[in-house]
Structure formats: structure tokens, C-alpha cells
Amino acid sequence: MKQIIFQQFLEKKKQGKKSFAVLIDPDKVTAAKIVALVELAVTAKVDYFFVGGSLVISSHLDECIQQIKASCSIPVILFPGSPSQVSPFADALLYLSLISGRNPELLIGQHVISAPFVRKSGLEIMPTGYMVIDGGAPTTVSYISNASPIPADKNEIAMCTAMAGEMLGMKLIYMDAGSGAKTPITEAMISKVSNCIEIPLIVGGGITTPEKAYLNCKAGADIIVVGNAIEKDSHLITEMAAAIHSIAVTA
């Protein structure tokens, strides 16, 4: 099974090089909006597009990805909220297991159902330990998952959860405070988790300023994901990218 993008993640982590992923929810973009986002992303040297959402109700997932791919060479990675959010036009898929919750359907149940379709898609599959952190407000992901998020001040729980995910064979850990979180994940929690795992760490949810993105990287995040803030102000892409890419690469 191909591992092109995952190997990129590993190499960048080894070098201390931080990455910026723009999250696009197909329900919230028009064709014209995609064109504008892609133009800004190319200019800002965005590393990845994540496409998906907790509740994708539109039917143009394929069209959204094809439009992105036709306009740039930035890799497109699926960030699915359900087994139906699979498109062969993407480059890779975050195969999410909600390790922070206790809902068996999102730990393994839906994966059993989706496995044949995912395998047939030909996508690069990246097993991802998905950890939802309390962002101070109810989120779609917490409602849909029917699982309580990890409390924002319980750094040790987050650390042990991430360690368990890595030892179970997950290739990535994704900490998410949820779209539109009032309070993003603290640097203290990010640092605690980063220091206890060797696999790449993705952080998203409630990151609304370049300063916060920068501090998250300094704390140990390898990939920063921003979606909601960019939906409100797409020109944040340039400032976010500059902040994230300003982190010095390890010699």
C-alpha cells in the first residue's frame, strides 16, 4: 500500500518542518470560493488541503476535490465524518478512529462497514487516532459521535490517550477542539502529547490567529489545520502560512 504523503509527514517531522493544512467543508464552499481559496493557498505555499466535515450533506464532494486538483498540485487529504465521505479523486484518507470516546461505532464499527470501499478507492490510507478536546462549546463532532470530549485541562488523559493510540498502531494523532471552538487546545496539552509520542501530531479547532498557530507549532504540533477562521476571512491563509513556516527547521 502506497505511503507517499505519510512519508512526507515523517520526513518533515524529522526535520522539524511544520505544515499548514487548509480545511474545506464541501457544504460551505461554492465553485467560485474554491477558486479563490486555491489561488491564495498556492501563493501562500499551503502544504495540504483537508476536505470533509462532521456532517457533509451536499453531494458535490467529488466535484469539490476535482476542482482543487485541477487548479493546483497541493495534496488533497480526506478528513471524513462518515464512511460515505470517500472519494477516489483525493490523494489520501485520514482513517479516523475516535480514540478519545467510548462509542464503538467510531472506534471500529463504521470502519468494518467502510473497509471494502476504502480499499477499492485506491487512496493512501493513514490510520489516525482522533482525539476530540473540549473547546468550550458544543460541536458537531461531539454531537454526531455521541461521545464526551477530553476536558481541556486534563493533559494527562490526553497524553495517555495519544500514547495508547500510537501503541495500538495509529500512524498519526489528530487533536481537535472542533470547528468554531471558543477555546483552542492549550500549548501545555499539545506539549504533553507531543513529548510522549514519536508519530506526527495534527492539531486543529479554534485556531483563529497566526500567533496561536505559531505557538501550537512551538509546543509540538507538526501540522496545523484551520478551517472555520478561513471561512470567515480567507486572507488569513497568507498570515497563517507565514507564521507556521517561520518555525526554524532542525539542522
Number of domains: 1
Q: CATH homologous superfamily name?
A: FMN-linked oxidoreductases
Helix content: 40-55%
Poorly predicted segments: none
According to CATH, what is the class?
Alpha Beta
Biggest sheet architecture? 8 strands, parallel, barrel
Average pLDDT, to the nearest integer? 93
**CATH topological fold name:** TIM Barrel
Question: What proportion of the residues form beta strands (DSSP E)?
Answer: 15-25%
Give the C-alpha Rg: 16 Å
> How is the largest sheet built, in terms of strand order?
1-2-3-4-5-6-7-8
Q: Label the CATH architecture.
A: Alpha-Beta Barrel
Distance between the termini: 31 Å
Explain the overall architecture.
With 251 residues, the chain is α/β, with parallel strands linked by helices. It has one domain: TIM Barrel. Helix content is 43%, strand content 17%. The protein is built from 10 helices and 8 strands. It has an 8-stranded parallel barrel with strand order 1-2-3-4-5-6-7-8, surrounded by 7 helices. α2 links the parallel β1 and β2. α2 runs parallel beside α10. It is globular and about 45 Å long.
Explain briefly what this protein structure is.
By secondary structure, this protein is α/β, with parallel strands linked by helices.
